[in-house]
């Protein structure tokens, strides 16, 4: 028995000695484990994030979207003073040389055919438009169509192998969602800033006729107009268009046009050359206690009609001044902006139900909208 114990002790001592030598000189041998098929692989610590991307980084989203965001340079010939040829004018004011005006903005490539979404105010009245891609390619662009009501414009370029952005669903955005703003602020070059969705459905700002802005605190500065607002997956959520600022720079209040609106404008311009919207010919006003009392209305919700165009669609359907429109095609309206958007979404020539309050009476009227007239150019 003593002999067996001695053999066992010697064996254990030799095994421990060999393990110590291997652990000291070749520790990686102890980190190997067999897998299927007899192949041996090393056990390694997992990388942070996915595919080596640090946790919390928006690198993938930025790289995915940034390639499709372009810089836009515009030039406009200077307007010559009508009195410049008058000798007396030149005597008193000198020879005033005219310099061309230059503009700067951003845009987003949305089609392999070369269509680019941007703001109307970026290219408005421009004589020449140059687009600079993220890969440094430059080319001239032409305006396919504009929609001043939403401050959107569609450009087209003739290059091949164009990077595209994926159009997301802005209707799925919620306050607090993280977003990135991509553009060319102040002409310094493409820049990515980050923030969250601060608010949705912003309107009555006096910027556009149809307002349904996404508000964000991602830094947006002059030159970002027409650039992309994307989600954490790099999908387009909106077109950056305006900021609230007392200094001219970002103060954390920026506005973007939802991609749902941009998609409608894009499809309308490419298909028909213009965006067709419904119109009924009324002058709406916010429903206040004073107006309600003036017109003898007992409503607390809706939009009051203060004027009706003679022989317009609303007049022909029986709508009168003092009526309160409570809903359009089954959708309630609470302010003028919602009424304009609801009517604009109607197809001209097809009747829709309007719920109207007149005094203490509720009426259901069939209104056949016409085509909204093209807006006059507004000097910005």
What does this structure look like?
It is a single chain. The protein is an alpha+beta fold and 380 residues long. Among the domains are: 170-272, Beta Barrel (Thrombin, subunit H); 278-371, PDZ domain (Pdz3 Domain, Roll). It has eight helices and 23 strands. The chain has a seven-stranded antiparallel sheet with strand order 7-6-3-4-5-9-8. The protein has a six-stranded antiparallel beta barrel with strand order 10-11-12-15-14-13. The protein is extended. Residues 32-48 have low confidence and may be disordered.
Number of helices: 8
| CATH structural architecture of the domain at 170-272 | Beta Barrel
Q: Quote the distance from N terminus to C terminus.
A: 105 Å
What is the CATH C-level name of the domain at 170-272? Mainly Beta
| Largest sheet, strands/sense/barrel | 7 strands, antiparallel
Task: Classify the fold: give the CATH topology of the domain at 170-272.
Answer: Thrombin, subunit H
Please count the beta strands (DSSP E, at least 2 residues each).
23
What radius of gyration results from the CA coordinates? 32 Å
If you average the pLDDT, what whole number results?
Answer: 82
List descriptors.
seven-stranded antiparallel beta sheet, 23 strands, alpha+beta, Thrombin, subunit H, Pdz3 Domain, 380 residues, six-stranded antiparallel beta barrel, extended, single chain
């Amino acid at each position: 028995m003593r002999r067996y114990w001695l053999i066992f002790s010697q064996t254990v001592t030799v095994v421990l000695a060999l393990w110590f030598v291997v652990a000291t000189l070749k520790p990686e041998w102890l980190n190997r484990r067999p897998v299927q098929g007899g192949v041996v692989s090393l056990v390694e610590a997992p990388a942070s994030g996915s595919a080596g991307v640090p946790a919390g980084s928006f690198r993938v989203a930025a790289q995915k979207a940034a390639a499709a965001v372009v810089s836009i340079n515009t030039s406009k010939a200077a307007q010559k003073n009508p009195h410049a040829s008058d000798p007396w004018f030149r005597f008193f004011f000198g020879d005033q040389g005219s310099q061309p005006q230059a503009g700067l903005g951003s845009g987003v490539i949305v089609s392999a055919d070369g269509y680019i979404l941007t703001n109307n105010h970026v290219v408005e009245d421009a004589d020449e438009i140059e687009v600079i891609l993220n890969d440094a390619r430059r080319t001239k662009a032409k305006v396919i169509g504009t929609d001043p009501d939403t401050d959107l414009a569609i450009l087209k370029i003739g290059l091949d192998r164009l990077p595209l952005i994926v159009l997301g669903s802005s209707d799925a955005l919620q306050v607090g969602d993280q977003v990135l703003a991509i553009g060319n602020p102040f002409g310094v070059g493409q820049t990515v800033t980050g923030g969250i969705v601060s608010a949705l459905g912003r309107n009555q700002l006096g910027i556009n006729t149809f307002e349904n802005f996404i508000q964000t605190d991602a830094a947006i500065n002059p030159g970002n107009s027409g650039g992309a607002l994307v989600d954490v997956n790099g999908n387009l959520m909106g077109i950056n268009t305006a900021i609230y600022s007392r200094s001219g720079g970002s103060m954390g209040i920026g506005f973007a046009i939802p991609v749902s609106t941009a998609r409608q404008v894009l499809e309308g311009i490419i298909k028909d050359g213009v965006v067709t919207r419904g119109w009924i010919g009324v002058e709406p006003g916010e429903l206040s206690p004073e107006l309600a009392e003036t017109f003898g209305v007992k409503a607390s919700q809706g939009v009051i009609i203060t004027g009706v165009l003679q022989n317009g669609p609303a007049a022909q359907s029986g709508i009168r001044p003092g009526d309160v429109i409570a809903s359009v095609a089954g959708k309630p309206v609470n302010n003028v902006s919602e009424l304009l958007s609801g009517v604009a979404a109607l197809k001209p020539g097809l009747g829709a139900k309007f719920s109207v309050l007149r005094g203490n009476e509720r009426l259901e009227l069939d209104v056949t909208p016409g085509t909204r007239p093209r807006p006059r150019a507004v000097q910005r």
